[in-house]
Amino acid sequence: MRKLIFFIFVTAVLVLTFVLMYKNSSLPTITYFPIDEENTFTNAYSELNFSNKDSKDGYVLQWISGSKSSQPLYLRQDVSLLYENGQLRGVRSKWIEDTDTIKISEKLDRNKESIFDVISFHHGEIHSSEENIKSIQEMTHDELYVFDSISDNEYKSFRSPQNKHEHNKKDALDQAKKSTLLHHWNQLITHFNINKESYTSIPLSRLYLYDDRSLPGMDQEETNKIIGQLWEGLYKNYIIPAANLNSMDKNSNYIPLILISKDRSHLVVLFELNGKKEKLIQRL
């Protein structure tokens, strides 16, 4: 009887180990492959919507992102990052095989004046054969300002200011966010002893600007490859760890800073997660 119990126990352990190994081996990743010129995204978007109707003391922010490819692909994955006043507020990733459509949607209750930034990376793998794998990629972005209208006793929002009061609110929120981020980034630059004069700096939240224009000193083909490989590294080293943080941990983490060397030899990504300063290096 003891031998039978022991045999069952050993078998159960081996089965569990196999399952865990299989699960870990099939974890979703983003992998850059040469860009496919025949397949495209027919639609890709990131969007922030505001409502003060469903909240007594604040407002509701709806965060959505999604994409549709020209045909179902072997693998589709979208990643979306939300920042509030430069601080990480949320990380969402969706990974689906044999589909053309992905959508991410979430609502957040908030109660303070803020600038919200969302940047998303939409990715697809095309497997013509085991030896011929290509990909498609696109970045999207949205930005929303929310302010407390004292005269109306409610929160309001805008993307572009329409009057003097909104212009003043935008300037104040922009300045506060800029001051916070510059202080944080300078701490990282000092910590890693980096000569910032040797680099061109791009906040991650502004990387979408290079979706259809080239990085400094690069052509568009080089830019697409660099950005695809950059998101591959970010997914493994930043996005997955950030997704596992609880909401309080996210409050102390800010938009990563990308530094592209002016000699075009490499780029550096600086960020802090869970109190630990990190530096990623990508050869160009």
- Name the beta content range: 35-45%
Number of domain units: 2
Termini separation: 63 Å
Low-confidence runs? 4-26
Report the structural category: alpha+beta
- Work out the number of β strands: 10
- Helix-strand string: HEEEEEEHEHHEEE
Shape by Cα distribution: globular
The CATH architecture name of the largest domain reads: Sandwich
Mean pLDDT: 89
How would you describe this structure in keywords?
alpha+beta; Immunoglobulin-like; 2 domains; 4 helices
Give your account of this protein's structure.
With 284 residues, the chain is α+β, with helices and mostly antiparallel strands. It has two domains: 41-161, Immunoglobulin-like (Sandwich), CATH 2.60.40; 165-283, no CATH class. The chain has four helices and ten strands, in the order H-E-E-E-E-E-E-H-E-H-H-E-E-E. It has helices at residues 2-25, 164-191, 220-243, 247-250; strands at 41-51, 59-84, 87-110, 114-127, 133-149, 154-158, 199-203, 257-261, 266-273, 276-283. The strands form two sheets. Strands 1, 2, 3, 4, 5 and 6 form a six-stranded antiparallel β-sheet that branches. Strands 7-8-9-10 form a four-stranded antiparallel β-sheet, with helices on both faces. The termini are far apart. Mean pLDDT is 89; it is low at 4-26.
